[in-house]
Amino acid sequence: WHGAPTAVGYEQDQSHWQLHAHFYPPLLRSATVKKFMVGFEMLGEAQRDLTAEQAASRLRDLPATHYKTN
Question: Is the pTM higher than 0.85?
Fold first, then answer.
């Protein structure tokens, strides 16, 4: 949590300060899947219990309908 200072300068106008928080979700993942916390995942986004290879396989299996192919 980050907020306005409460010691030195407390009597001054602090209206420009905002409350700011970081939410780090628990790692609810399989013990056998490596997890590297990076980017958006550090800020509370949903986490998936699948590997990059599994995700790539699922994407390859999707139909090409509605997708451009060059």
Answer: no
* Amino acid, single-letter form, for residue 29: R
- Sign for the CA dihedral angle at 61, 65, 67, 70 comes to positive
* Alpha-carbon Rg for the chain in angstroms: 21
Token output for 23: 């939410």
Whether the CA torsion 31, 34, 40, 43 is positive or negative: it is positive
**Mean pLDDT on 32-60:** 70
Q: Which of 22, 27, 16, 26 is nearest to 2 (CA)?
A: 22
The mean per-residue pLDDT over the stretch 56-62 comes to 89
Q: What tokens were used for 20?
A: 């700011």
